Amino acid sequence: MLQTRFTKLVGVEHPIVQGGMQWVGRAELVAAVANAGALGFITALTQPTPEDLTKEIARCRDLTDKPFGVNLTILPAIKPPPYAEYRAAIIESGITVVETAGNKPQEHVDEFKKHGVKVVHKCTSVRHGLSAERMGVDAISIDGFECAGHPGEDDTPGLILIPAAANKIKIPMIASGGFADARGLVAALALGAEGINMGTRFMATKESPIHQLIKEKIVANDERETELIFRTMRNTSRVARNEISTKVVAMEREGAKFEDIRELVAGARGKMVYATGNSDEGIWSAGQVQGLIQDIPTCGELISRIVREAEAIIRSRLEGMIASPAAQAAE
Which of 20, 135, 270, 327 is the most exposed place for a label (fewest CB within 10 A)? Predict the structure, then answer.
């Protein structure tokens, strides 16, 4: 068993996290992750109302008696969701760990901490990680440029970002972006993280509540099958390459503004991808890690395989590379 400061902080067996994913972070996936000894997050804003979130948390509790959390993403919007009501639903449901993401979550962090909820904040840079640490969060999740969703605007890959953050951040840190297997977990631990966060990899599992054809598409895709949209708007998002994302990138190159592409990138269309299995129906998130995903296991199979193989890499491959003094002398 691999124990880290993070596993002790949140009370799980394995240093593996299934982060919040819009339309994907539902009870059946989160419970499967929890039952396998890792930490899963229900995505709050996937639920249409705070009342629906309360019901989804209860549904997850019916499926597992292990710890799980809720993701609350704070994004700029013309008509923002009732964040305070979602926050209250999380607290009143007795959730003990929350993943926050997005802009200036200080008021949410303060309120969660007041009720004894542990907060893991998603960041895309060392400076934002340090800001979150000052804000009083318990841990951070640091997203490298490889990740699905929002990688920030610095374009710093995990191989640099994780150790750079580890040099300065004192609270536990989870590495995110580009993780799918035991090799990634061992690498993240070596770079200074206390575990890994996986999104795209958990989309391609038996319990993931998305269409089988999309799971198969993730397996078929290689590491080149993503696009970076909204680059020109300084709100970069890494999504699966398809007819729509390729068109959006081309339109941006021609100077398109958000109003020009609004209909193409509408969330309702992205939601339909997961419902219908038509990968060209809308924009949907996927990371470069698609190139490392070869199968569609259960969450239990995936997590136990990663932990088992990580222990083997540490014990056999890495330890085997250290020559004893006697062996060196014999040479």
Answer: 327
What pLDDT shows up at residue 77?
Answer: 76
CATH tag, 5-210+297-321: 3.20.20.70
Tokens found for residue 68: 């799980």
Per-residue pLDDT reduced to its tens digit, 306-325? 999 999 999 999 999 998 77
Give the residue ranges of DSSP H helices in 277-314: 299-312
Q: In the chain, which residues fall in CATH 3.20.20.70?
A: 5-210+297-321
Q: Is the pLDDT of residue 172 over 90?
A: yes
272-299 pLDDT tens trace = 999 999 999 999 999 999 999 999 999 9
Measured between alpha carbons, how far is residue 242 from residues 133, 228, 275 in Å? 38, 12, 17
Q: Where are the alpha helices (DSSP H) in the chain?
A: 5-10, 27-35, 50-63, 83-92, 106-114, 126-135, 158-168, 182-191, 200-203, 212-220, 243-253, 258-261, 267-276, 299-312, 325-330
The pTM score is 0.96
- Please give the helix or strand (H or E) that residue 173 lies within, else none: strand 173-176
